[in-house]
Amino acid sequence: MTDSYSARRPGTGRAGAPITVRPRRSAVAASRSALAALVLRDVTVLRKSFGEFVGRTLMQPFLLVFVFLYVFPSIGQGIGGGSGQDGQSAFATVLVPGVVSIAIMFQGIQSVAIQMSQEFGYTREIEDRVQAPCPIWLVAVARVLSGAVQGLISAVLVLPLAAVVHAPGVHPELRIRWWIVLTLIPLACVAMTALGLVLGTAFEPRNIGVMFGFIVLPLVFLGGTYYQWTKLGSVQVGGFHWLQALVLVNPLIYISEGMRAGFTDLSHMPLYVVYPVLLGACVLFLALGLRNFRRRVLS
Fold this sequence. Notes:
single chain, mainly alpha
C-alpha cells in the first residue's frame, strides 16, 4: 500500500525520486534579457516623443550660442576678453566644446534625475519597473544606460548647431580628433547619467528647484563651459591658484576639457587626468546612486 502510493505521489518519479526542473537559461542570461527589455522600453518611449526630445535638447544650447556668438558680435559687444573678429572667433572656439558638455550634463539630469524623482513621487511608476524579473539594482542601471543613449543623441545634435550658429566673420576653429570624441563622449554620458541617478534618488519632487539652484547651476558656471581650465591660473590669492583647484571637484570641468582636446587645438587639461577621473566618477556615482535607489525602493 505504501509503496504503491509513493510510486504515484506527485512530484516523484517511478522509483520515488524527486523530479528536478532545470531552468532554460541562467540567471545572468535572464537578467541580461530583462536589462535589454527595460532599455528598449525607454528607447521606444523616446522614439514616440522624439520631436519633444529634440526641442528640449536644442533650445538651451541654441540660445547660448545665439546670444554669445551671434548677438554680441553683431552689436559690437566684446566677449571672452577679446576684441574684434579674432577675439570673438577665439571665444567661439572655447565655447563650442563647452556647449556640447553642458548638453550632455543637462540630458543626464533631465532623463534620469527628474524622471526618477517623479517616479518615486506622484507617478509611482517605479513600482512597476521593480517588478521586472531581475535584481533591483539592474532597474537603475537600465535607466542610466537609456539616459546615456539620450546623451549621445544630444551630443550629435548639439555639435553641428553650436558650430554653425554664429555671426559673419566669427569662425570657431575646430579640429576633430575622433579617437578622443568616440571614447570621451560615451564615458561622459554614463558619468552624467550616473550623477543624475544620485540626484534623482536624493531629492524629492518638491525640492527639484533646490537641486537646480544649489547643484546644477554651480556645475554649469564652474564647469569650464565658457573658459579653459588652463587659463584659471591667473586667478590667485597669495600665489595660490584657488579657483583652478576649486573647480577640480566639479566633474563637468573634466568633460569640458576633454571636449576641447577632442574638438580644438586649444590648451587643455592633460588627458591622462581626464579619463581616470571620469572613470572614477562613473564608479562613485553609480555606487552612490544604486545604494540610494535600493533604499528608496525598499522603504
